[in-house]
Amino acid sequence: IEIIFIYILVTYFLFKIISCQNLLILVVALESHTLALCVLCAVNGKLKQVEASLKYYIISAASSGFFLLGC
Q1: Positive or negative CA dihedral for 26, 27, 30, 32?
Q2: What is the pTM of this model?
Q3: Can you tell me the distance from the alpha carbon of 27 to that of 48, in angstroms, rounded to the nearest whole number?
Q4: Which residues contact 17 (CB under 8 A, 6 or more apart)?
């Protein structure tokens, strides 16, 4: 039942990304969507899946930081 809730969160954040009119809301929705996707990737609990989702989240957070700072 937790996985269904995470799927609902992913869908909600996708709709929030589509309908946003503010850059701050776009970034927050994008990061929340990324976090929910990482949880879905690592839900099985295998070491390689957890490692891949952690790497994906770190790289996406770094790229969002570069985007916001304008480097």
Answers
A1: negative
A2: 0.79
A3: 28
A4: 26, 29, 30, 33
Which of 22, 24, 21 lies closest to 32, judged by CA?
24
Phi, psi of 70 (to 5 degrees): 80, 30
Residue 11, amino acid: T
Q: What is the DSSP string of 10-66?
A: HHHHHHHHHH--SHHHHHHHHHHHHHHHHHHHTTT--HHHHHHHHHHHHHHHHHHHH
pLDDT in tens, 11-51: 999 999 999 899 888 888 988 898 888 888 888 878 899 99
